[in-house]
Write a structure and sequence with these properties.
- The chain is built from six helices and two strands, in the order ααααββαα.
- By secondary structure, it is mainly α.
- The protein has one domain (24-175): Ferritin, core subunit, four-helix bundle (Ferritin), CATH 1.20.1260.10.
- Strands 1-2 form a two-stranded antiparallel sheet.
- Helix 2 (27-38) packs antiparallel against helix 4 (62-88), helix 4 (62-88) packs antiparallel against helix 6 (145-175) and helix 5 runs antiparallel to helix 6 (145-175).
- The chain starts with a helix and ends with a helix.
- The mean pLDDT is 94.
- This is Manganese catalase family protein.
């Protein structure tokens, strides 16, 4: 893919995000969203991972570098949404989540530091599918319709990202 095309690829689903609101406080829901915020599979990890990949890729992957940076921006938007939802649900949007009764603080060891282009793309495809699946599962579990509709909307972005990474992987398979 050419670099000028990379800036035109849609990196988010076309429909607008719903309003950031909740029907009422719910600490259990806030804890669930805390995992999406700060776990090894959460948005904080995705943001850093995509920035890392953007930084380490070389000139032949300039188009992918551009797209990774733009996808990281979408993930930052998700992080912002989750933080606001957690606060509205009565939680504290710290960069940590609860594992059982133990807090787990986000750290750079939660990031996948693959450097090979095929490993990067394969991992990113699985991560994006997993994120979409997780958001959709939570949307069914959470009975707050405002939160559920937002999770379903964010899942659509993750599927867009999965498809973008799949396209890059196919392109690399053909060209090399």
């Amino acid at each position: 893919m050419k670099l000028e095309q990379a800036g035109k690829i849609p990196v988010a689903a076309p429909e607008p995000y719903p309003p950031i609101k909740v029907e009422g406080k719910n600490h259990h829901y806030a804890q669930l969203l805390g995992q999406d915020l700060a776990s090894s599979w959460g948005e904080m990890s995705a943001i850093y991972e995509y920035l890392y990949q953007h930084w380490i890729l070389s000139e032949p992957q300039a188009a992918l570098q551009t797209v990774l940076f733009r996808i990281a921006q979408v993930e930052m938007h998700h992080l912002n949404i989750l933080g606001q939802l957690i606060r509205l649900l009565g939680g504290d949007p710290k960069c940590q989540y609860s594992s059982g009764h133990n807090p787990v603080v986000w750290n750079g060891n939660m990031v996948n530091y693959n450097k090979g282009i095929r490993q990067i793309l394969s991992y990113d495809i699985v991560s994006e599918q997993s994120a979409a699946d997780s958001y959709l599962k939570q949307a069914q579990l959470i009975k707050d319709s405002s939160v559920s509709v937002m999770l379903r909307r964010m899942a659509r972005d993750e599927l867009v990202h999965r498809d973008i990474f799949s396209g890059f992987l196919k392109e690399i398979g053909v060209s090399k």
